Amino acid sequence: MRTLFLLTFLATVSGLSAQRMVAISPDEDVSRVLDLFSEINEREDKVEGWRVQLLATTDRQQLETTEKQFRADYPSVTVDWVHNKPYYKLRAGAFFTRQEAERLRQNLSEEYEGVYLVKDEVEESVLLKMY
Known about the structure:
This protein is of the alpha+beta class. The protein has a domain at about 45-130: Alpha-Beta Plaits, CATH 3.30.70. The chain has helices spanning about 1-20, 30-45, 60-75, 100-110, 125-130, and strands at about 45-55, 80-85, 85-95, 115-125. Strands 2-3-1-4 form a four-stranded antiparallel β-sheet. Strand 2 (about 80-85) and strand 3 form a beta hairpin.
């Protein structure tokens, strides 16, 4: 039994030493595409996240008034707006997960009518300020 084990062990070891290392070099076009992809990702500072939408209006003055009041009431919460014609959309917070954004939405729903969560591309630096 011991001899059989020893022979099996030696056969395995000699088989491993006979294996060769294989080097794979990617096609030049593939390498260029991967390099470009990597470069773009390094420059991209936005990630998919969540915000709380406070307002959607066609009246820019209403947007600015609401934004000013929100900044005064919640100075530690980031707020931003986007213009998707014809609407101006005021959004607050910047969160990685829906659950984190939901807490803010619940707090704001008492003061702002019709607030809801939206997925958005947010800057990583803004996400870090929220924590």
